[in-house]
Amino acid sequence: MAPSTKDQIKGKVHEVKGNIKEKAGQVTNNPNLVAEGQDEALAGKVQKKVGQVEKVFEK
Question: Which residues, 6 or more positions from 13, have their beta carbon under 8 angstroms from its beta carbon?
């Protein structure tokens, strides 16, 4: 599997985990967990975009 594909998959996993943490923080009224979830989701989006850019340059 190409590194770009791995980055895209890992990015999506982090994005989903971040969204789950954010929702859990909202349900439990925990602002720290909400912020942590937002950070992880953003990091996942960035990693996914990096994988997409790498894929373009592999061709």
Answer: 44
Task: Say how far apart CA 28 and CA 21 lie, in whole Å.
Answer: 10
Nearest 5°: the CA angle 15, 19, 21 is: 115
pLDDT in tens, 16-57: 999 999 999 999 999 999 999 999 999 999 999 999 998 888
pLDDT at 28: 97
When divided into structural domains, the chain yields a total of 1
Question: CB-based burial of residue 37 (10 Å sphere; 0-12 exposed, 13-18 middle, 19+ buried)?
Answer: buried
Range of the domain at 15: 3-58
